[in-house]
Amino acid sequence: MKEITLGIIKPDAVEKKIIGKVISMIESTHLNFVEIKMVSLTKTTLEELYQEHTGKAFLPELIEFMASGPVLLLLLEGENAVNTLRSLCGDTNPDKALPGTIRRDCGEGLPKNAIHASDSQESAKREINLLFPEHQIV
Ligand code: ADP
Ligand code: MG
Question: Is 104 annotated as a binding residue?
Answer without folding.
Answer: no
